[in-house]
Q: What sequence folds into this?
């Protein structure tokens, strides 16, 4: 278990420019020796395929513990987000400046509600 925790030491981020910039300023940015980063800035010109490929890549990397994704971006790839059922990396949906958080859409909260039988 300790070895697993040492391997998974990064946060990854898929989000709008403001969110990514803020978290990069907070120090989460990383580029490995193969020039692979742990973040993707999504704007109106970002192809859906790029978002999907990045999400799949981040959820399969062994050095990432948590994938943060703006909820409005997660909505674009909702099927992939909902299908991700592994503990590591955890996928957490976060709000953005221009898009409020909606708990009814959050994949983690939906999973908890299914487990507890609370469908309010």
A:
């Amino acid at each position: 278990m300790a070895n697993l925790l040492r391997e998974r030491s990064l946060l990854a981020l898929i989000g709008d420019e403001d969110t990514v910039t803020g978290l990069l300023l907070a120090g989460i940015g990383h580029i490995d020796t193969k020039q692979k980063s742990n973040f993707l800035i999504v704007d109106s010109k970002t192809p859906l395929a790029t978002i999907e490929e990045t999400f799949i890549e981040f959820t399969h990397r062994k050095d990432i513990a948590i994938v943060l994704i703006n909820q409005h971006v997660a909505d674009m790839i909702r099927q992939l987000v909902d299908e991700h059922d592994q503990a590591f990396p955890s996928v957490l949906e976060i709000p953005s400046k221009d898009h409020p958080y909606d708990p009814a859409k959050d994949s983690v909260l939906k999973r908890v509600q299914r487990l507890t039988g609370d469908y309010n």
Observations:
- Strands lie at 10-15, 39-41, 64-70, 90-94.
